[in-house]
Amino acid sequence: SSPDAENLLRPDASAEYDQVITINLSTLEPHINGPFTPDLSTPLSAFANLVKANQWPETFGAGLIGSCTNSSYEDMTRAEHLVKQASAAGLQPKADFFITPGSEQIRATLERDQTLSTFSSAGGVVLANACGPCIGQWKRTDGV
Length: 144
Fold this sequence. Notes:
two-stranded antiparallel sheet, Aconitase_4Fe-4S_BS, three-stranded parallel beta sheet, Aconitase_4Fe-4S_dom, iron-sulfur, iron, alpha/beta, globular, single chain, Acnase/IPM_dHydase_lsu_aba_1/3
């Protein structure tokens, strides 16, 4: 590799920063977004207590993969990988799950690469690449 390629992600020697943020990746934990709104993000360790305190539904009835604004190809194929692992282990979804591609280009690429058929064959429902499910615009079939 060329010397220039090795330095692409390094700051200039004289670079100065207003703020440096250090993230310890080993302290990160999974979060759950929702319920009722996609902008409510809760660490998994705190979720059970919030369910009780806020009297949220105690059963998980539906999951949403993607949205009109944040379902990149990479995000969708990561979710597909989980679905493939679960299917290979003989697991079936216990809740409805819906897939919303982020754009027509993402939808077409996911269809081309058979990602959408992976979701469908596992019981997922592929929706239009439009705004809707994460803000509550969908027909619930789980009694909520």
